[in-house]
Design brief:
- This protein is mainly α.
- The chain has two domains: about 130 residues, no CATH class; about 45 residues.
- The radius of gyration is 19 Å and the shape is globular.
- The termini are far apart.
Length: about 180
């Protein structure tokens, strides 16, 4: 199992461009649809935790999925798998960047990847929003407006959303006890 986790996250790390958010739909497909290691609800919980924890979201997601699937060894295998490709590419780019920095082919390739990266970032938002209560779409819009429109810190928006979520669950629990 450990090697399978490593190989899966190595493939994810090697063939994903655009950062952590671009990896989310690929991780989701691999661990839910292809491997059936965890169910969608657990993945959403792990993803929420990964976004809340400090560090890159893809790395956090790999750690949490690996740990859930195969404990500490699974977490280490997943981390190694997702990090090795990026580390290797960054090392090579750092060594060769001075030579290719002004190459028009390299510049064109990066410009061509931008739309695909945007699509890979939007895809998990659409996928993860399926099955949500309609009221939560308003929360999404309000949070986006607070961050982009009003310039609020995402940390404060996340903290407020967490507090509201806790208050709502406490309200529901109190209501059920009556």
């Amino acid at each position: 199992m450990t090697f399978t986790l490593f190989r899966s996250f190595l493939k994810i790390g090697a063939f994903t461009f655009g950062g952590g958010y671009a990896m989310i739909p690929i991780i989701e497909h691999e661990v839910i649809d292809r491997r059936a290691w965890i169910d969608r609800a657990d993945f959403l919980d792990l993803l929420t935790l990964a976004q809340s924890a400090p560090g890159p979201i893809a790395l956090n997601t790999a750690v949490f999925v690996g740990y859930k699937v195969h404990g500490f060894r699974g977490a280490l295998a997943s981390i190694a798998g997702v990090v090795i490709p990026s580390f290797t590419v960054i090392l090579l780019v750092a060594l060769l960047f001075a030579d290719i920095r002004h190459n028009p082919w390299v510049d064109a390739a990066f410009r061509g990847m931008r739309p695909a990266v945007v699509a890979l970032i939007v895809a998990p938002v659409l996928s993860l929003s399926r099955g949500m209560h309609r009221a939560l779409y308003g929360v999404i819009v309000a949070a986006a407006l607070a961050v982009w429109g009003l310039g609020w810190s995402p940390i404060y928006v996340l903290a407020a959303a967490a507090a509201c979520g806790i208050a709502w669950e406490m309200f529901l629990a109190k209501k059920l006890r009556r």
